[in-house]
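ping. complex inputs:
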Amino acid sequence: MNMMNIVNLLSMLLILISITIIISKDNLKLIVFFSAFSLISASLYYLYKSPDVALAEVAIGSAIIPLIFIISISKQREFVVISHVDDDFLRNCGLIKGVGYRILEDFTNYYGLKLSIYSNDIGKLYGIFRQRDVDLIIDKCPNTENYLIKGKESSILMNKLEQITEKYDRVVVLKVREGETYD
Amino acid sequence: MKFSQILVCICRLLFPFMLLFGFYIIINGHLSPGGGFQGGAILATAILTTSLIDNEKLANLNLLVKFEKYLFIGILIIVIASFFTRGEYFTNFLPVNSDMNLKKIFLVILNFFIGIKVATGLVAIFSIFIEEGR
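pong. complex structure:
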């Protein structure tokens, strides 16, 4: 088999893989196909006598770009909650669960999200120079002893949360507009 | 995230060889294809995959990010050094009629600094991207 045959074969494979990427619905499978795409294109670069570009393509296309996609997919299914209360409302230890934790668990199971609760630690510096992207903030009103759940007004999920919390009389849902302060 | 034991083991095994290959491409950059950018990308791949899969090994990425800022000053010094020897910027700081083997030093040093700079820059982009919203 001479070199031209190999080039033709690899080009056909490239077209097939790119059609598969467009058609396929499963996100994780798609990332593997994407990685194979860049490996094949790197070998094509090498056969067309540009090993310089092939090296960069191998390093970036087959490792860094799939990493970006994997991280962003695992981030999509996360629901970030910050709590400012320090009593039993959000406690989760085995069989004993607080009222608020049960509400949030029902809510996230309904949408198939992963719940992650962080306590109040604004002084810590996460990341390098960016704000944290928060879905919900839970607070306690000092006068009426009610628990306040603050969320963005624009989010569609808030309506479902209001429906769930109608049964509990000490829990209030507040909708905050986009630009207002979060603290 | 929890990864399987096989993945962690293979990752620990491959990490020094990936670093070695990256440094080989950087230092041989003036003789063979590759150079600062390509070797730096390979170094960044090694660091990022290890820090994502094997959490205990490279816990502190922020130190690398701080290191990047000082490297930039190093690149500037190498580039400006030719002004004091030859009288113009952005060229080799050794004299024109010197030996060819001596002139290679400039390329090796510049490739090395650019490689480390690219690696730490990619790590900086990623550490911002990973820790977003946490």
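Chain A has five helices and seven strands.
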